[in-house]
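Might I ask for a little of your time on a matter of protein folding? What I wish to show you is a protein chain and, alongside it, a tokenised description of its three-dimensional fold. I should value your view on which stretches of the chain appear to form regular backbone elements. You will find the record immediately after this paragraph:
***
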Amino acid sequence: MIENTGVATKEDLAQVEPSLERREKGPVAVFECFQEIPCNPCYTSCRVGAVEEFKDINDLPHVDHDRCTGCGVCISHCPGLAIFVVDQSHQDYAVVRVPYEFLPVPSEGQEVDALDREGNVVCRARVRKVQNAKSQDKTLVVWLEVPHEAAMTARNFRVVKDR
């Protein structure tokens, strides 16, 4: 249970994961928000209305994955760092966009260790892009290229010194 470990269960994740078919069509947001707290920046930041309006500020967000364009604006607006964008439309790799608020900031092209939700290394990843706009309020969005099998497990990364 997330209340005890801080890590979502497979059952929790199954409720929020877009289908493989949808992920193969292009980028789509994955909201791994499982705690009912007063928060709605995901809703207010979504430009295409893919996040359903909250009936109560404590409601969990619901995303219409078919409506989501995967623009990723919501990533840096989520104070819980619980939103990711996954794109499995590429033949050779998947792209996972993750929020990042640590130092050092990776460089584009740099290889990093992709980590799962518990901090375990799941694979090597290549930093494809680092978004750091003023509108992101110091929450960078890092685009990671990972093997397809890691698309739904890679949720963070660790910068490693040159190997």
Notes: The radius of gyration is 15 Å.
